[in-house]
Amino acid sequence: MQSHFSVFRRGDTLKEGMDKLTALRDPLDQVTVDDDSLLWNVALVSALELANLADQAVVIAHSAVARTESRGAHAREDYHKRDDKNWLKHTIAWKDEDWNVSFASRPVHLQALSNDVQSFPPAERTH
Amino acid sequence: MSEFTLPANSKVGEGRHWKLAQPAQHVKSFRIYRWDPKKGTNPAMDTFDIDRDECGPMVLDALVKINDQIDPTLSYRRSCREGVCGSCAMNIDGVNTLACLTPMDSLKKGTSRITPLPHLEVLKDLVADLSGLYAQYALIEPWIQTDQPPPDRERRQSPEERAKLDGSWECILCFCCSTSCPSYWWNQDRYLGPSILLQSHRWLVDSRDQHTGERLDRLEDPFRLYRCHTIMNCTNTCPKGLNPARAISDTKRMMTERD
Description:
The structure holds two protein chains of two kinds.
Chain A: E1 8-9, H1 11-22, H2 25-29, H3 42-66, E2 75-76, H4 84-87, E3 89-95, E4 101-107
Helix pairs in contact in A: 1-3
Chain B: E1 13-18, E2 27-34, E3 44-51, H1 59-70, E4 89-92, E5 95-98, E6 111-115, E7 122-124, E8 127-128, H2 131-139, H3 159-163, H4 182-187, H5 193-204, H6 212-219, H7 233-237, H8 244-258
Parallel strand pairs in B: 1-3, 2-6
Antiparallel strand pairs in B: 2-3, 4-5, 4-6, 7-8
Helix pairs in contact in B: 5-8
């Protein structure tokens, strides 16, 4: 994840990383826990953490490939500009058993929840 | 009548020796305390041989390697692996410290001994029961207390007022100090111990807190504060380089000055 899905991303290295990540699907199915204790079972905790990391990694990877723009900590070298027309939205992702990921989106709240400050439209970052 | 030996079911025996499968050039051995309440057997010291060339530099790396590759039933606490969470506090070669901040190079040659934090009940292997310490932490009410309603903005402090908190806020509650204190070993049901008294002092000197009097009242007791006999083990052992003993003596000073 650190070498292929860090802040600076590019289509071809994302693809490379995706292949490496997808290759882990079957090995991860074979994970076993060799400690059957119900007390402070460090091996079980590590296995649960690993399963969660895998879920997060797959969703992050697919979302990074899908978002063809640069925004904040997602800096695509092949899509330098922020694209508010198509991508001013949150990605919602679902991952199934076979690691297929499907997407939907949710609008971004652009109105403040109180009247203390004025809302202002998103603008390009120029600093 | 006094009893000068351990009860029969507490005697620590010799456990298993997990030897390396292949000979290695740089070998480090650890004797590690093992006890599983479910087994109904006495505690034992297992010996694990580690190939240093196939392991990270810290003692915690060795524990991770043992759990991962040698014996997955070894239990220990760990989280951040960089000395900010305080989970991996244990006794390494007779000194309470954090396994993640202890390089194997700093240990004596030969076999090193790892046991749980001393004088606490052991839950399993290197995991000690910290619930007494957490209850004592709750007792000092470690949050800001004032009589006015909260202000509209931050409560401001001068740099000097803020500086009084240095040496206290860095504490990560690993409890190396409390469990190295002979006075705490003896009276841990009534004496608060260095770690909790350091935190108590942090709130006593906070310029924003207005309940200093109540906080001192809570410590006005023959045991809670005054069982500190300036043994200084706490300051010696603190893996973050803090000085709980000074905080305790300053608390005693505040106590006498208000009388």
